[in-house]
Amino acid sequence: MNIALMAHDNRKELMVQFCTAYAGILSQHNLYATNTTGHQISDATGLHVHCFLTYAHGGNQQIGARIAYNEFDMVLFFNDPTQTNMAGEVSYISRLCDASNIPFASNIATAEMLVLGLARGDLDWRSIVNPSTRPIA
Fold first, then answer.
1. Tens digits of residue pLDDT in 74-104
2. CA distance 99 to 96
3. Which of 6, 13, 102, 136 could form a disulfide linkage to 77, CB 3.0–4.6 angstroms apart?
4. Whole-angstrom distance, CA of residue 62 vs CA of residue 45
5. What domains are defined for the chain?
6. What digits encode the pLDDT tens for the residues 38-58?
7. How many DSSP H helices and E strands does the chain contain?
8. Is the pTM of the predicted complex or chain greater than 0.85?
9. Which position has the higher pLDDT, 59 or 131?
10. Containing H/E element for 32?
11. What is the DSSP letter of 55?
């Protein structure tokens, strides 16, 4: 499955810790992230993460476009709710996921449930909705 990983600046370390804890599960899937987040995850965990542009250069828009085309099977976006100037970005990604029925987590508790469900096979229905599980170009 194709999994997008995003995190606000104050949540990047939490995303790294999460990916470290669940590296065994995540390593079986195709991981994508904005540039800074992706490199931090890859450096800390050894996981292969395809990196898009940085947030400031449109990486969030690259991920958003792929969500709109239903190319992701799950999106983990660790939100910092104290950053009110970024609330629109989380809402944008969340709405795109809702439109395509893509599981979305904005915090570690929900992300943990999705990843554990992924390991159990609870998200296998995504292969029917999105039969192409090959990596995104």
1. 999 998 888 776 667 778 999 999 999 999 9
2. 5
3. 6
4. 24
5. 2-77+87-127 (3.40.50.1380)
6. 999 999 999 999 999 988 898
7. 7, 5
8. yes
9. 59
10. strand 30-33
11. G
